[in-house]
## 1
Amino acid sequence: MSCAPHSLLLPFLDVFAQFLFTFPLLLFLVVFAQFLSSLFLLSFYFMSCSLNSSSSTSLKTVLTVSKTVLTVSKTVLTVLFDKKRTVIYVFFHSGQHAF
């Protein structure tokens, strides 16, 4: 049973192509979520100067949620960049190139 060398590379190419097409969309969504979260953080920070102390719990809740969104976005970006590096490493260091 003989296998052509390029047939072993096809699964890697498929994963690589799918990831390259979905990566920009995921990156845009994560960066957009970070932008919105930062915007909410800034707006509520400046609004807190004019608010009285009775609404401090809702302000703290919003700030906590915004910080959580920023943390999750940062984690997703880190995982995406690590995954992209891993896929590229596997593709280029598999020893079997289609070119």
Note: The mean pLDDT is 65.
## 2
Amino acid sequence: MSDPITEFVTFTPRDLASHPSAPFGAIASTLLATPGVESLHTGPQHEDPATHLLAIRWTSHAAFTAFAASDRYTPWLADLKALLAGPPRFHQVRLAHAAAAAAVLTAPCTEIMTAYDIGRPLFPENLRLFSERMAAACAAQGTRGWHANAHGEVTTPIAREVDGTPGPAAVLLIGWDSVEDHALAKGGPGPILDNIELIRTGRKDVTLHHYNLEQLSRDLGSLTSATQACFRQMLRGSPSNAHGEVTTPIARDVDGTPGPAAVLLVGWDSVEDHALAKGGPGPILDNIELIRTGRKDVTLHHYNLKQLYM
């Protein structure tokens, strides 16, 4: 029987100035290559842009357990922590309705409400009723900006504060077009106010945040923010480098299937200088792993160009 879980990792990147979107690179690539990772989503919090979220949809809890027990997990976690200003916070949720969970995480704005120290079984049941009633009404009424709802219990006790006492918790996720659409929906008569009393009791505390998440995938074209951040990290302070995404799908071969692509240009005095730079310790070898994954194929050529004048 399938036992999908969604893992949430909250963190603060060490260097937001040079990595405004997603400071992952090899971190994300390791996850994307891990069996059982169904999708990966990341982005900043609307209320506090210094706080970021990584959401990992696992096909089963066994898949996560296998990764956590593998020899890849400890180096992956160490690499992640090295990029952060402080320890990351982890928790996992069994979300009802897998299709709805995917729709919520891919919406332009993801609202996440976490209820702490919940009373069982009353609060989980009331949360289910709230989520399902709201979703049905929003779908029937065509609520502006609403995408989907998902809900579930956290698999292990957690606390609101880092030094708090862990307890049972539950999560409600709602996908919106924008924070403004959420504010409009809860500001007047409608599905939220009609059912909100269901989740106002039976829990000791609650947090509510909005995230602007982007889905990352094995396809380079879907790695927009992560890829650009990797290039920025590799090329920072190098005026002779340029990079960017190709505006239309292209293929490596004439008869190949076009797909998204990106380009890196580096200026050298000679091919020999490039060979010397990549042949030993230095900026290229220090950062090359950032662009060895997340793409299906690559070509590398050197050109001797001349500028033509009018």
Note: The chain has two domains: 5-216, 225-307.
